[in-house]
Amino acid sequence: MEGLKFVAIFCVLGLSVCDEVCHTESGDKQIGDTWEEDCQMCRCRSSEGAASADCQRPLCFPLERACIKWDDSGCCPVCVEKGCKHGNKTYPIGYEERPEPCTTCICHEWGSYQCSTLACMVAGPECRLSPEGESVCCEMKKIEGTCCGYEQICPPGTHLKK
């Protein structure tokens, strides 16, 4: 046990009661005294006629999942910055980005960086009758740089009835 130098019992001759004292780095402590030493909570106790210091580390609360930076200069670490870690980058809570037109990524308050992609419904080729009565089909082509943007590509000179 760090901090505890030695325990002494001082007895007065002729008396059956002894004066028990815990000698510590922070000074003498009487039975029942409590103090903090080296991030430990200590108490001077009497056990079998001798004084002894009973020291225990404090119960530190676990850091929140969203904690990405903490101060551990005290007895227990304290969160000083919350955010999300993803790959080699960190993001603040609430950060949102669109790495692709249909994908949105968000740093949630619980420290999770999540991306979701919108699923686009695309119809197959659209076929109609031409003025001449022939079946003509137009293909759907994705418009680059858009999310779910498509245009109809019909054979040249085709005018379809609606």
Helix content: under 10%
> What portion of residues belong to β-strands?
over 45%
The number of E-state strands comes to: 15
Average pLDDT score: 81
Q: What is the helix tally?
A: 0
Spans where pLDDT lies below 50 across 5 or more residues? 1-18
Shape designation:
rod-shaped
What is the gyration radius calculated from CA atoms? 38 Å
N-end to C-end Cα span? 90 Å
Could you give a short account of the major beta sheet? 3 strands, antiparallel
Number of domains as seen in the coordinates: 3
Going across the biggest sheet, name each strand in turn.
1-2-3
Question: Which class do the helix and strand fractions yield?
Answer: mainly beta
Series of secondary-structure elements, N-terminal to C-terminal: EEEEEEEEEEEEEEE
Say what oligomer this is. single chain
Q: How would you describe this protein?
A:
The structure is a single chain. It contains no helices and 15 strands. With 162 residues, the chain is an all-beta fold. The N terminus is likely disordered. The radius of gyration is 38 Å and the shape is rod-shaped. It folds into three domains: 53 residues, no CATH class; 51 residues, no CATH class; 40 residues, no CATH class.
